[in-house]
Amino acid sequence: MTLQNQGVDALVLDAALLEEDCGFISVIKGIERDLPIIICAGSNTPELESNIRQQKIFYYHINSFGIEDLEMAISNAIDGLPH
Prior knowledge:
Elements lengths: L10 E4 L8 H9 L5 E5 L4 H8 L5 E4 L4 H13 L4
Parallel strand pairs: 1-2, 2-3
């Protein structure tokens, strides 16, 4: 399965995947420039948030915000796509 041949409307990733290196977000953006990327974090540090936000993601979600905020972010990401 690859991004190029799948109908992906939004990508939701766990921040634990990014703690060492956020570089693969730029790889994803190189493949699908307009793909909304939402990052979910169980806990937040200023360094992690700064590194993730530098990648120009769509939304950074801290799990303590609640599931409703995440659902709204996903809905907004999908609704904002060009049709």
